[in-house]
């Protein structure tokens, strides 16, 4: 997973830019879950407009742009939430959203989430708005993939260094307890643990 602080900055910046450049009054970045729900990971609203806070879990139970993106992996829009059933559509109406548009976020070939923008005015998004918000989805996907790759590389380097230190201990230590101490310490360091123990089971 991408580091928490790095992802928060990314989601915050991209969400706000998507909202402003699309002349929307609200914008959110959403992460899809395997259980059929979605979580808000980035949010922005124009002054005076109610935000859907980060970490809010929203159900994908309405024929909204977010639901269409989760099902098709393609950008989608809706020009009015009026009369649309479902909890998500009701939330959109209750918070003043009248129209919405969303685009997928793909990370390493898998559908990760979506960028969504909404308007509280009666004027819907222009015809080519799907293409513009789609560009934001691509940017987020590339940034997430790059961040994951950096973390994976850093983890690999740390693991190799730990293995090297253990190998040196095995080759140079005269007592097994010294090797055990090194192994335990390296495990704790790699896992970011405050304490670690190496236990031997005695057959009875």
Short summary of the structure?
Helix content is 46%, strand content 20%. The chain has 204 residues and is of the alpha+beta class.
Search tags:
46% helix, alpha+beta, 204 residues
Strand order of the largest sheet: 3-2-1-6-5-4
State the distance separating the first and last CA atoms.
Answer: 42 Å
Helix content: 40-55%
Arithmetic mean pLDDT: 81
- The topology string of helices and strands comes to HEEEHEHEEHH
Based on DSSP secondary structure assignment, what is the total number of beta strands?
6
Structural class assignment: alpha+beta
In the predicted model, the low-confidence regions spanning at least 5 consecutive residues are none
> β content, as a range?
15-25%
Q: What general form does the structure show?
A: elongated
Please outline the major beta sheet. 6 strands, antiparallel
Total count of helical runs of at least 4 residues:
5
Rg (C-alpha, Å)? 24 Å
Written overview of the protein:
With 204 residues, the protein is of the alpha+beta class. It is 46% helix and 20% strand. The chain has five helices and six strands, in the order H-E-E-E-H-E-H-E-E-H-H. Strands 3-2-1-6-5-4 form a six-stranded antiparallel beta sheet, sandwiched between helices. Strand 1 and strand 2 form a beta hairpin. Helix 1 packs antiparallel against helix 4 and helix 4 runs antiparallel to helix 5. The longest helix is centred in the C-terminal third of the chain and has 44 residues. It is elongated and about 80 Å long. The two termini are 42 Å apart. The relative contact order is 0.13. The mean pLDDT is 81.
């Amino acid at each position: 997973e991408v580091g928490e602080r790095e992802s928060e900055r990314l989601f915050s910046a991209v969400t706000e830019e998507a909202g402003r450049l699309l002349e929307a009054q609200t914008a959110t970045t959403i992460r899809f879950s395997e259980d059929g729900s979605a979580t808000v990971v980035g949010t922005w609203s124009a002054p005076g407009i109610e935000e859907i806070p980060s970490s809010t879990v929203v159900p994908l139970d309405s024929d909204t742009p977010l639901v269409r993106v989760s099902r098709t992996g393609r950008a989608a829009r809706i020009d009015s939430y009026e009369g649309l059933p479902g909890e998500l559509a009701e939330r959109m109406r209750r918070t003043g959203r009248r129209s919405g548009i969303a685009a997928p976020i793909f990370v390493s070939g898998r559908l990760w989430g979506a960028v969504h923008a909404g308007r509280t005015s009666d004027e819907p998004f222009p015809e080519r708005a799907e293409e513009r918000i789609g560009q934001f989805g691509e940017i987020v996907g590339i940034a997430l993939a790059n961040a994951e790759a950096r973390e994976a590389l850093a983890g690999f380097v740390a693991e190799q260094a730990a293995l090297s230190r253990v190998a040196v201990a095995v080759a140079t230590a005269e007592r097994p307890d010294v090797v055990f101490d090194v192994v335990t310490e390296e495990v704790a360091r790699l896992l970011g643990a405050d304490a670690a123990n190496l236990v031997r089971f005695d057959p009875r």
